[in-house]
Every structure is written in structure tokens, then in C-alpha cells.
Amino acid sequence: MTDSNHTPSCYANTSTPYTYAPKMVKVYLSAIFSILGLISNLVAFIVLIKSCKQTQNTSRSFFLIFLGGLVVTDFMGLLVTSSFVMSFYITYVDWRLSDPTCRFCNFMGMSMVFYGLCPLLLGATMAIERFIGIKYPFARSSRLSKGRTVSMVLLVWFIAGSISLLPLTGFGSYHIQTPGSWCFINISSKRGDWAFSLLFSLVGLISITASFLLNTVSVVTLIKVCRGAGRRQRSRDHEVEMMVQLILIMIIASVCWCPLLVFITQAALAGNGIQMKQLLLWIRFATWNQILDPWVYILFRRSVLKRVNPHANWSRTSVVSLYPSFHENICRFTRSSLGSNLGSDVPENNKKSNVMSTSPATPSPSSPCLVGSES
């Protein structure tokens, strides 16, 4: 073992003792998770490319660009981090001896931070885009283009990359973590390490909170529009489908990342060191975000749901019609909770036309929660 006086900074971990235990976790377990995640993201990327070529809806094409950025980020995150971990398990190399300058350790630490923050920041950006697209569709359509959407994805990558580079400037540090197969931020009582740990966790928690608030407003707005006169409203099928996918992405990110982010926040504020077993557990838990994200788009698409429920009334081409009971509950809920507010906004002429449309001489009207498709 290298003498402590000559130990490089990234291996002089002040928060937790370094333990060289390569057999602490079986290699095949990490290999299965990594391969599963890589295949999932690759399949999702192929599906996204096909959907981009087939879609004619502008807002949907913007959403697919964000999803493509998320899939690419998850794929590269698994590829880079798993390469380091797998090489450790295969060779049982001691990083203190093979990387005395801390270059590989710093690179892996940067990768962990970068590919950890990117999905959370992209989720918040997608929530902002959907919020503007649903609340202010005309303003969004006149200002947003595919080029600007790509620029927003690049901006998210730039912000996450800038945060991951801060330890190289002295603000925080990256250290080897037990069992010696990976590097991550050093959670200690030092001012720089303490501040960087809080920055990482707070950026993630703020992103999740912003996604939750904006998605909630977007869903409520969709319910209001869904209750409007179907023939007088523009198509909302794609909006509903995108919101379902975005909410699932938000739920997965919250469940996978909140335990780790809260744990880092508590450890940084306490300043008493951390429990390595808990940190390792929550890191593995967060890794599932990169594995589950692609399956949201692979499974929760209208084409897939049609195959799962082929007996649904697809003439209405509405995602809500997939589940009639859910659809009836939504109608009942909107009538009771939103009816008074919406009733005052409907012109008198529209009310009269709605009354006339329900006369016995006319065919049975479609449900007010279903919106006609235009695309």
C-alpha cells in the first residue's frame, strides 16, 4: 500500500476510509444492469428516429428532440461509468497505483456528476417546454424552432458540464469510493467539499420540484381544455400522450434520485461523514433511472397501447379513450371542480349551441372530454 504522505489527493478520502475490496459486489450483477440499460436506450433511440421521420406535429417533434437528448445522455452515462467499473472488476486494479495523477478518478467523478444532473435538468426543461406549449401555444409556436430546441439541449449539457468541472478549479473534489471501483464527490466538512455537495444535491432537487409544479399546472390545463367543445378545440391527442410520458419520466427520476440527493444534503449539513453502504445503495438506485427512462417511450406510445387494447374505440383517436372508466372519472371530476369556473368563461352563444346539439334529432354526441384529431 502506498505511503500516506505520498497518497494523491483524490485517494486521501477524508470522509470515508478507502477499502480495497473488489469482490464486494459480483461482477455479473453490474454487467447485467449495464447491458440492460445500454440495450434499452439503443432501442429507444431507434424508435425515436423512426417517430421523428413519421411525425407531422410540430410540438411533438420538439418533444422528441428532448427525448432524444435524454436517451443519448443516459446511453453515454451508462457506457462511460460502466466501462470504469467493469474494468476494475475484471482486472482488480488498484487505482492508487495505476492512476497516481488522479486523471481517471477525476474523469469518472465528472462523468458521475454530469450524467447524473443531465436527466434531471432535461426533465425540468421538458416540463418548461410543455408548460409553455400548453398554456401559451401561439407564443411558443412563433418563437421555438428545431434549431432552438437543439440549442436548449446543448445548453443543459453545458450547465451540467460546467458544474462537473468545478472540483478541478478547487471548488469541491472527487475521491475514490468504496470498494475502490468508482469515484464521486467527496462529502466532507471542508468548505469546498461541503458547498459542492450541497450544490449538486440542490440543483437536482430544484429540478425535480420544478418539474412537479410545472407538470401539475400543465395537467390541470389539459383537463380544462379536454372538457371544452371537442369540435372547436385543436387536437390534444399528442399533448396528452406527451404529458403521460413526461409525468412517468418525472416519477422515475424522483423515485430513483431523491433518496441519493436527500442523503447527500443531510450528510453535507451534518458534517459527520457518511455511511458508505448507504451511499453505494442510493447510487445503484439512481442508476435505475438510466435503465427505466427509455422504456417510458418504448411502451407508452399510442401505437403500442393500440396493440395492448385493440378493442378500444379508436375512431376518436384519443389517448383518454383508452380507459373508459378513467375517462368518465375525469369528466365527473372536471364537471364538479372546474365547472363553475369554466361555465363563466363560455360565451352565451356557445352554451345555446351546446344545448341544441343535444336535441333528440341529432346523433348521439361525443363525450366533451374527447378532442378531435387534426393530424
TrEMBL record:
<feature type="transmembrane region" description="Helical">
    <location>
        <begin position="194"/>
        <end position="223"/>
    </location>
</feature>
<feature type="region of interest" description="Disordered">
    <location>
        <begin position="344"/>
        <end position="375"/>
    </location>
</feature>
<feature type="transmembrane region" description="Helical">
    <location>
        <begin position="61"/>
        <end position="92"/>
    </location>
</feature>
<comment type="similarity">
    <text>Belongs to the G-protein coupled receptor 1 family.</text>
</comment>
<keyword id="KW-0297">G-protein coupled receptor</keyword>
<dbReference type="InterPro" id="IPR017452">
    <property type="entry name" value="GPCR_Rhodpsn_7TM"/>
</dbReference>
<dbReference type="InterPro" id="IPR008365">
    <property type="entry name" value="Prostanoid_rcpt"/>
</dbReference>
<keyword id="KW-0807">Transducer</keyword>
<feature type="transmembrane region" description="Helical">
    <location>
        <begin position="27"/>
        <end position="49"/>
    </location>
</feature>
<dbReference type="InterPro" id="IPR001105">
    <property type="entry name" value="Thbox_rcpt"/>
</dbReference>
<feature type="transmembrane region" description="Helical">
    <location>
        <begin position="244"/>
        <end position="269"/>
    </location>
</feature>
<feature type="transmembrane region" description="Helical">
    <location>
        <begin position="153"/>
        <end position="174"/>
    </location>
</feature>
<keyword id="KW-0597">Phosphoprotein</keyword>
<keyword id="KW-1015">Disulfide bond</keyword>
<feature type="transmembrane region" description="Helical">
    <location>
        <begin position="112"/>
        <end position="132"/>
    </location>
</feature>
<keyword id="KW-0812">Transmembrane</keyword>
<dbReference type="InterPro" id="IPR000276">
    <property type="entry name" value="GPCR_Rhodpsn"/>
</dbReference>
<keyword id="KW-0325">Glycoprotein</keyword>
<keyword id="KW-0472">Membrane</keyword>
<dbReference type="Pfam" id="PF00001">
    <property type="entry name" value="7tm_1"/>
</dbReference>
<feature type="domain" description="G-protein coupled receptors family 1 profile">
    <location>
        <begin position="40"/>
        <end position="297"/>
    </location>
</feature>
<feature type="transmembrane region" description="Helical">
    <location>
        <begin position="281"/>
        <end position="300"/>
    </location>
</feature>
<keyword id="KW-0675">Receptor</keyword>
<keyword id="KW-1133">Transmembrane helix</keyword>
<keyword id="KW-1003">Cell membrane</keyword>
<protein>
    <recommendedName>
        <fullName>Thromboxane A2 receptor</fullName>
    </recommendedName>
</protein>
